[in-house]
Amino acid sequence: MSNSPTVLAPSHAGTAHAGPAHAGTACAPFGPARTFLSFRLGTELFAMEVGCVREILELCRITRVPASPAHMLGVVNVRGTATAVMDLRSRFGLSPRPPGPDARIIVMEFLLDGGLVVVGGLADAVCEVVELAPAQVSPPPLVGMDWPAELVLGIAHREHDYLLLLDMARTLLSEPPRTPADGEGRTLLPPTR
């Protein structure tokens, strides 16, 4: 690992950056074709809209911040700005594991209460940029899914895999799920109000 991040440009040259995602707004119906960045956490494949992706960094030194939540790994220097990095495995209730050679930090941006929030997420691997038409996306099932429905935009079938399309603003800014380390197994329930 190096001490300074290396920027890896996503391979979606020519795609217009839609600007930061808006947190706290209802998920839009899956209308015209949309572009997603897919990433892996263990054997599970997820995707987020490219409009919330600022950049992708090779794994670099992460400075731990005392008294931060368990899913927060610390901060990295992104062009002179301290940027918080969360462990997406922990954030999504998956068992922790050390980062491998394909691990990347996905730097995302969201508008929250009129201000720009920038946060990084450590993924086991970043896979590809994909464009999905409405016909390729199904709504999340009402039963049998560990993910709260309000965090999921849909499920896309691609070749031999399914992509779980996440509303990253809602996912990252909501209460984290309990992890297997909590002693009660993997539960991914929406926050209680």
Gist of the model:
By secondary structure, the protein is mainly beta.
Strand and helix map with partners:
Blueprint: E1 7-8, E2 21-22, E3 34-41, E4 44-49, E5 53-58, E6 72-78, E7 81-87, H1 88-91, E8 104-112, E9 115-123, E10 125-132, E11 137-138, E12 152-158, E13 161-166, H2 168-173
Which descriptors would you attach to this protein?
193 residues, 2 helices, disordered N terminus, seven-stranded mixed beta sheet, six-stranded mixed beta sheet, disordered C terminus, 13 strands, mainly beta
Give structural notes.
This protein has 193 residues and is mainly beta. The protein is 5% helix and 41% strand. It is built from 2 helices and 13 strands; from the N terminus they run E-E-E-E-E-E-E-H-E-E-E-E-E-E-H. It has helices spanning 88-91, 168-173, and strands at residues 7-8, 21-22, 34-41, 44-49, 53-58, 72-78, 81-87, 104-112, 115-123, 125-132, 137-138, 152-158, 161-166. Strands 1, 2, 5, 6, 7, 8 and 9 form a 7-stranded mixed sheet that branches. A 6-stranded mixed sheet has the order 10-3-4-13-12-11, with no helix packed on it. Strand 8 (104-112) and strand 9 form a beta hairpin. The N and C termini lie far apart (41 Å). The model is unreliable at 1-28 and 179-193 (pLDDT under 50).
